[in-house]
Amino acid sequence: MRIYTRTGDKGQTSLVGARTDKDAPRVETYGTIDEVNSFIGKAMTELDSAIFSDLLTDLEAIQNELFDCGGDLSNVKPSRTYKMSEEPVEVLEKRIDELMEEAPLLERFILPGGSPAAATLHIARTVTRRAERLMVTLMKVEEDIPTVVQRYLNRLSDYLFAASRVANSRINIRDNEYVRSAKVFRNGGRAKKVEE
Question: Which ranges carry the Cobalamin adenosyltransferase-like domain (predicted)?
Fold first, then answer.
């Protein structure tokens, strides 16, 4: 099967229902979501299934949801329906709460790292933040954008933070605190961060 089409050789790509430039804000946004998905896939290869079966289940669902997000953003047909709903956002919130309850108490910012899986989850988290920033820009310049995708990305970055901490704690690796950090978490990290 030939995977190249040569249709993008002049700097354009296909959306569902139109063609656009490859550097268009919409394409940049769902391309960054694809980056997140790739880093999540890498993290999954670094998690021991005997210890992290719940995280692997979460991450597999998230990979599918990220494809849904990208599909929704690439669909510009006038009569379109979206795959993403509020339910995955609510599931992420529940899992964030559960993982933060499990993770060690936290008062200060932590440096990305620890186990290979935790480090990769931190990379996925920061790329998710970039995708969310691009999403916010996209919502300013285009109408009829599925705003649930922005909410999902916002929760996903928090989930990946919580998952990275559990990826370390379950194998007895301590998080490395940022030494000049003030106390920025209330209740030992069990509550919402002081600064978003």
Answer: 3-167
